[in-house]
Design a protein that fits this description.
Oligomer: homodimer
Pfam family, one (chains A, B): TetR_C_7
Largest interface: A-B, 35 and 35 residues
Number of domains of chain A: 2
Helix content of chain A: 55-70%
GO molecular function (chains A, B): DNA-binding transcription factor activity; transcription cis-regulatory region binding
InterPro entries (chains A, B): DNA-bd_HTH_TetR-type_CS (IPR023772), Homeodomain-like_sf (IPR009057), HTH-type_TetR-like_transc_reg (IPR050109), HTH_TetR (IPR001647), Tet_transcr_reg_TetR-rel_C_sf (IPR036271), TetR_C_Proteobacteria (IPR039536)
CATH topology of the largest domain in chain A: Tetracycline Repressor, domain 2
Order of helices and strands of chain A: HHHHHHHHHHH
Keywords (chains A, B): DNA-binding, Transcription, Transcription regulation
Protein name (chains A, B): TetR/AcrR family transcriptional regulator
CATH superfamily of the largest domain in chain A: Tetracycline Repressor, domain 2
Chain lengths: ~200, ~200
DNA sequence: TGAAAAGTAAACTAGCTAGTGTAAAAATAC
DNA sequence: GTATTTTTACACTAGCTAGTTTACTTTTCA
């Protein structure tokens, strides 16, 4: 069964795509509604037919960014597999996620807006920064199974994520460094696994 | 000897302070030159007498922020002191620096501007993110003295800084969390020292 | 004291901003 | 084929923007 795609829906999507593209280039404040309409190849009136105001368009897009980010992978703890292999797989997964070029541009827009509009940092949004749940769940299970030392899983998780983001996320967000190559991702994964397990493996 | 402070210098400083204060509240794009003049209690013409354009005022302030940040403390490696005590002192120093409320607001302005104006991220600016030199030097010396395992000092340093920033800097910059309390700084320091030395101590 | 330097208010230009009103054209629905 | 919805171009408001001009006052400094 094919889903019906109305012209209205196409226009709406064009507006969202155009706005996002303009935001990525100029930032939210320096992107006008005229510019958005032009980028989306749509009349300005059509923009206002779909979104009551610029504010609504911006928050819709930023919330959409977050919503897409919530879907993470699910790798479960395996009792019969070496810890380092499992952890490496989980971290590699996180890194692929964090290094995604497309995602980084979206997040840059969201951060640029949220820095001076902190009120939209609602609970639903800050989830992104805490929701790497597959990894937390894995830590909990490994601790329960007695294969990791007793720790607050939240703390161990925060340490792992900090180690990854500090080298594969923040420098890229700030335009300091290009995305990591596959070899670099590999190396960072191994380093982090060794570092982490040296301290936490039971 | 008292340094002569001219009225012109006072006005200039008032402009800088006013602009910075307005930037912190509204972000650069959403702060007008009229607003800056008003905040600084100065006529708009005086603003333009000191700074040729808004662009020049912005870049002057942001460069000044960076310049101030380059001055870090100097704790040297001591051959006759326990590693964990020395490292704890160094990390505590970094944390006091990163948790400085005033600094965080300045950096938020700089980041908000640089996100969509990456060209001003010149070499002199990105230094801030690499210049925690006291810590790097300490690692090098401890490695040379055979008290830390052989590693690239840059890598070990990056790991330490990531662990600190991930919990005491980025969440605060993004308005997610309040500044760390002294007790939390203490705890983070101890955790990080233990984590790091478990892997790297020779 | 008196000339030069710096600061002032206020009006002004020219262009951009978010958002609206309108009437015609095009696509869709039945 | 007709009725309805959607999109379109375009003119418009009202306000803000960076930056300038002018005529004037205050401060500095020798």
């Amino acid at each position: 069964m094919t889903v019906k795609v109305t012209r209205s829906m196409l226009k709406r999507q064009a507006i969202i795509d155009g706005a996002l593209s303009a935001f990525q280039q100029y930032g939210v404040s320096d992107t006008s509604m005229d510019k958005i309409a032009q980028t989306a190849q749509v009349s300005k009136r059509t923009v206002y037919n779909h979104f009551e105001s610029k504010e609504q368009l911006v928050t819709h897009i930023i919330k959409e960014i977050w919503r897409q980010n919530i879907l993470t992978c699910e790798l479960e703890y395996q009792a019969d597999m070496a810890l380092d292999v499992q952890l490496a797989a989980l971290l590699k997964n996180e890194l692929d996620f964090l290094s995604n070029q497309n995602l980084q541009e979206l997040i840059r827009v969201a951060i640029g807006y949220c820095l001076f509009n902190p009120e939209i940092f609602t609970a639903e949004m800050s989830e992104f920064f805490e929701q790497e749940t597959a990894l937390i769940r894995w830590i909990k299970q490994a601790v329960s199974a007695g294969r990791l030392r007793q720790v607050e899983p939240q703390k161990a998780h925060a340490q792992l994520i900090s180690l990854l983001k500090g080298q594969a996320f923040w420098p890229q967000i700030l335009h300091q460094q290009p995305a990591l190559t596959n070899a670099q991702i590999e190396e960072l994964t191994e380093d982090t696994v060794a570092f982490f397990l040296a301290y936490y493996q039971a």
